[in-house]
Amino acid sequence: MPCSVCTGGRSRLKLLTVSHVTKSYQGKEKLAVNNLSFELFRGECLGLVGESGCGKSTLARCLLRIESIDEGSIQFNNTAIEHLNERQLHPYRQKMQIVFQNPSAALNPKLRIKDSLVDPYDVYRKKLKLRHFSYTSKEAFVKQLLEAVELPENIANKYPHEISGGQRQRVTIARAISIEPELIVLDEPTASLDVISQGAVLDLLTKLRNTLDLSYLFISHDLAAVHQMSQRIMVMKDGNIVDQFNRDQLFSDHRHPYTKELISIF
Ligand SMILES: Nc1ncnc2c1ncn2[C@@H]1O[C@H](COP(=O)(O)OP(=O)(O)OP(=O)(O)O)[C@@H](O)[C@H]1O
């Protein structure tokens, strides 16, 4: 599929190749993800939109190997990762991060923000060569991360319950970028936020993608947010991808009837 929009003229290097991935629950009774295939290119934001229960989060968990898949293949940088054991997966876990909908659940309530922020780095520090940030001291590292997500320095000493939901989500984003992954799966990252915080967090994510050379899979039930963020968009329904297109083709007559339905409530 030609896609000059998504790369702005840069060459299209595949970061993730998903081939015929299937995932079911309750034996084989509940088919959550049905034979999905798609590619995600380096540097792009690929949007995935669909109503609640269509299988978006299941797909995200499968891609990150939080859950195993029943069938198919997931290649990251041309390496199949679906059969890797936990030790073999370790380097890929650094390269693929996820930001969930609920930042409160993602942060340890007993840790000060500064300690949560350095947690992922501590896991990978021996093998990690930072390109965008630098670790000279914990304080300096925390300061850089807070600056990157546009949070004030004094947040560092607070606990998660002492800051707002929008600030907590920025902290989880700072944790995700702290180890400089290549791909971040954003699973409804603004769903728990008020409208003003939503817009600000989406703007921040776009800025970070550009400055840190990130690629995103942006998952949402909100077509407007997906349209704002993504260069390409996939539409999911009942475990299937029913439509895929460049951002500027959203309103084309060729769209799938289900996409048109989503557009009608856009
Ligand atoms: N662990 C599980 N056990 C059984 N069924 C599950 C499990 N996880 C998901 N499902 C089912 O798989 C289907 C897809 O769920 P999933 O959470 O992936 O959808 P979703 O599109 O992310 O929805 P939402 O936007 O509400 O999170 C649903 O029918 C759900 O009930």
TrEMBL record:
What are the recorded GO MF terms, alphabetically?
Answer: ATP binding
| CDD domains according to UniProt | ABC_NikE_OppD_transporters
Keyword Cytoplasm in the entry? The reply is: no
Q: Which SMART domains match?
A: AAA
Where do the ABC transporter domain residues begin and end?
A: 16-263
Which UniProt keywords are listed?
A: ATP-binding, Nucleotide-binding, Transport
Q: Which SUPFAM superfamilies match?
A: P-loop containing nucleoside triphosphate hydrolases
Q: Which InterPro entries match?
A: AAA+_ATPase (IPR003593), ABC_transp_ATP-bind (IPR050319), ABC_transporter-like_ATP-bd (IPR003439), ABC_transporter-like_CS (IPR017871), P-loop_NTPase (IPR027417)
Report the Gene3D superfamilies cross-referenced here: P-loop containing nucleotide triphosphate hydrolases
* TM region positions: none
- The superkingdom of the source organism is Bacteria
An example of a Pfam family matching this protein is ABC_tran
Protein name as annotated: ABC transporter ATP-binding protein
This protein's species is Paenibacillus gallinarum
